[in-house]
Design brief:
This protein is mainly α. It folds into two domains: about 80 residues, no CATH class; about 45 residues. About 70% of the residues lie in helices and about 10% in strands. The protein is built from four helices and two strands. A two-stranded antiparallel ribbon has the order 1-2. The protein starts with 11 loop residues before the first helix and ends with a helix.
Length: about 140
C-alpha cells in the first residue's frame, strides 16, 4: 500500500500527503489557459492558479455577457436605421396620394363634361338633320 492513500488506522502524518499536494497544486502552481491550445499564435486568456481561474469565471462571464449585450444593442440600432431607410424609400406619402386623388377626380370631371358637350353636339346635329330632311 502506498503512503499517499488514506485508510482508517494509518499514520495521519503521511497518509494525507496526496491531498496536501493537490491543495498546493490548486493554490500555488500557475497555469496558462489558451484560447486554442496547441495552435500557433493562440492567445492566453488566463494565467494563474486553478483556484484563481475558478474565481475568475464569474468575471469573465460578466465581461462576455456585457460584450454580447453591447453587440446586440449595436445590431438593434443598425436594424432600426436600415428599416427607417427602407421605409423612407418604399413608403407612400399620404399627402402626395391625396394630391394625386384630387387631380384624378378633376380629370374625370373634365372628361365627363367633355362627353356631355359632345353628346349635346351630336343631339343637335341629329335633330337638325331630321328637320332638314322632311321639308
Amino acid at each position: 500500500m502506498s503512503k499517499d492513500s488514506a485508510n482508517a488506522g494509518d499514520d495521519t502524518s503521511t497518509s494525507y500527503s496526496n491531498i496536501t499536494n493537490m491543495i498546493t497544486a490548486l493554490t500555488s502552481d500557475e497555469y496558462t489557459l489558451e484560447t486554442k491550445p496547441g495552435e500557433e499564435g493562440s492567445d492566453p486568456f488566463f494565467t494563474g492558479t486553478i483556484q484563481k481561474a475558478f474565481m475568475n469565471v464569474p468575471t469573465s462571464l460578466a465581461r462576455s455577457v456585457a460584450g454580447v449585450k453591447s453587440t446586440d444593442a449595436d445590431n438593434a440600432n443598425r436594424l432600426d436605421d436600415i428599416d427607417t431607410s427602407r421605409q423612407s424609400i418604399s413608403s407612400v406619402s399620404i399627402d402626395d396620394e391625396a394630391v394625386s386623388l384630387v387631380q384624378y377626380n378633376q380629370a374625370l370631371t373634365a372628361a365627363a363634361r367633355f362627353m356631355t358637350a359632345v353628346d349635346e353636339c351630336l343631339q343637335t346635329i341629329i335633330s337638325s338633320m331630321g328637320v332638314a330632311g322632311r321639308g
